[in-house]
Amino acid sequence: QVRLVESGGGLVQAGGSLSLSCAASGRIHTYYTRGWFRQAPGKEREFVAAISLVGATNYADSVKGRFTISREDDTLYLQMSDLKPEDTATYYCAVSEYWNSKDTTDFGSWGQGTQVTVSS
User: Fold this and answer.
1) What does the pLDDT look like over 80-120, one tens digit per residue?
2) CB neighbour burial string for 51-90, b if at least 16 within 10 angstroms, e if fewer
3) Mean pLDDT value across residues 20-31
């Protein structure tokens, strides 16, 4: 089993930056991919970014060039810059056995989420 705990969310003005962390415990290395998703009120949870065991990365078009996913030891990071009000959401990390999937059903061990609010 894997336990994931997100942190680093907060309130930031548009154009600002924020860094999220996802600490993992348990058998994290049995999973090939670690990813970030987000869910805004009234909307479905959507893919943000993912990173594989070998360091390959994948981003949603909406965040490409602004967000950077990285991994160090058992902690996953999401560096967010040039934030926009539409980035406001609860951000979740999760793991998957698959690569190149952006489907929430292919991910599991969801953390509790961390809130990011971007004011205009």
Assistant:
1) 999 999 999 999 999 999 998 999 999 999 999 999 999 99
2) bbeeeeebbbeebeeebbbebeeebbbbebeebeeebbbb
3) 91
The CA-based diameter of the chain, rounded to the nearest angstrom, is 41
Q: How many helices (H) and strands (E) does the chain have?
A: 0, 10
- For 3-15, give one letter per residue: b (16+ CB within 10 A) or e: ebebebbeebeee
What are the tokens at 5? 């705990």
Nearest to 86 by CA among 50, 18, 39: 39
Give the separation between CA 7 and CA 82, rounded to whole angstroms: 19
Token couple for 7: 């942190």
User: In one letter, which amino acid is 109?
Assistant: S
Distance of CA 44 to the CA centre of its chain: 15
Average pLDDT over residues 25-29: 88
